[in-house]
Amino acid sequence: MNSDNISPRFINREISWLSFNHRVLQEAADETNPLIQRMRFLGIFSNNRDEFFRIRVATVRRLASFSAKKKLLGNETPHELLHEIQNIVVKQQSKFERIYMNLLKEMEQYNIYVVNETQLTAEQGRYVLSFYNERIRPILVPIILQYTREFPYLRDEPIYFAVKLSKQNRSGKTRYALLDLATEILPRFVVLPKAGEKKYIIILDDIVRYCLNDIFSFFDYDKAEAYTIKITRDAELDIDDDISKSFMEKMSLSLEKRKRGQPVRFVYDASMPEDLLSYFQRRMRLGREDNIIAGGRYHNFKDFINFPNIGPSHLENKVKPPVPAMYFEHHKSILEKIKERDHILHYPYQSFRYYIDMLREAAIDPRVTAIQITLYRVAPESVVINSLINAAKNGKKVVVVIELQARFDEQANISWSSRLQEVGAKVIHGVPGLKVHCKLTLIERKINKRIEHFAYIGTGNFHEETSKIYCDEGLFTSDKRITSDVVKVFEFFDKNYKQHIFNHIILSPFSTRRHFLYHIDHEIKNAKRGKKAYMIIKMNSLVDEEMMEKLYEASQAGVIIKLIIRSICSLKPGVPGLSDNIEAISIVDKFLEHSRIFYFYHGGNEKVYISSADWMVRNLDRRIEVTCPVYDPEIKRELKKMLRIQLRDNVKARIIDDVQDNKYVRDENKKVIRAQDAYYFYLKRRRSQIENLKKKYK
Description:
26 strands; polyphosphate kinase like; eight-stranded mixed sheet; 3 domains
């Protein structure tokens, strides 16, 4: 389809993403959430927005430079889109500030006070001064800007103070200074001594403000004013084409260049004096296209993800114990259990430790000859990596396909590559021209002369920390239909030129698009024949134009389509004559909905798949992704139950439509269903039923 002829049949992906982040902001305002969790949602919102500017706005700016008149999805030019983004961001920032002020007032009901430098008592002032002298003073280094020929380079992670120095009641030249608050070293929140029942928190920024005169005491000024500024830079990587360099060398050089990326957003304290703002804009060479945004007193709200709870425990989410796996047993061989039947784990309702236990078992089992795995993101102190290192030390063949272009984890993955190679593991840095995003593990075991294979296929990363907060699926299987295809995937990683036929697993970029188009066409045929035609699609993002057009076609043929899309949805559901039979919701709750699950009624022969892929061009055409069929009837039922529960959510589900006002799904006449809680309790009941059956037939 010619992009110049795209009608507003679709929502621009950046605008849809901003709508998703608005849903995160709604959680901060939602009084049914615990108070401290609401403050932390402000941190999540802010962190999301920072990454949006670093990646997506940076990309649109590049498009504006090279293809200014090209119409994007949603029928806007890059310049028009940048203007719309700016307007939405300013409105969201205003709402953000209101929510933050309301949360501060609500915390006072629990005797929790966030105080600034002007509200300190004499005793608190002494404590702050002591803290400053011991922890902060040795680190902070002010820069008087008039003394510098080159304006200092501002990184896009720290918080900076723009400082104005002047003399009260005396004429003299005003000076401007810059101060890096060193938040990567210093704590952002400091708990002050209690005063009776009252508890106090002060933000690092305000400690520094309280001590400004001390910081600049070397200079002949008696008035110092500090205003927060924040820069966000283009974080896209430009990979060097020099064939004499290894890919690791190219990535390392590109990461160095990223640190000096072009500004894409400049946020400043709206109360900053005009002369100070003008000075910084001029010296930093910021123009209209640089998204100059007036903000509040505090920036880098992403730090609020870790806002401390110094009040009662009910002010944050209660952590529920993980539901034990349905059939895995403590101190019993996991590989032997996988031989008996397929297993699935639903994170974070169930623990990732079963996967870790499987790796550990494989690392020490003398019959295991090889472990192969794909890695995209892992934890900073990765137990997964340590298990692979132990396996290599125990003489196993360890093959690790590690993606160096995992955004913002590139440096860590370069480091892990070196660690693994040092112990003799074979490290493969992806596939030329394709990002490896699938989540696979393959274990080979030799008993006598017979080779056994065990596979794990996941929707999320091998990351023990995010497995506690991301909703994902992990399938364990020894089914030869699946494992034989997983063997071929790893053979492809080793020898890209070899052609393989995959009979069960669906692999991007080779067959995923074609496979899903076939399934949608099958539902269309059944609908036209007057048969039941139905599908449920659960993903993070739906952007691919061809797939959306096919869903529109299916809707017009009478196929009932239910979409559960967490983030970007460029399709417009419920439009008369276009998408009458499509309904879409988004669930934003305490856990991040990350799993991809696909259900097709298929004439009664129901098909269920789990996948690492969304329906975006990059996932379908430019990445190695795996979609795996679910054959076990019991696991199918568990996944179908999850989808049904999520479609009935009337607490945290929002309606996705072309208006994008994120209305909550509400039905006063129905039982209240909060999907994430409901599925946790469903799994608990299932586990109890299985335990009771075991006791009955023991």
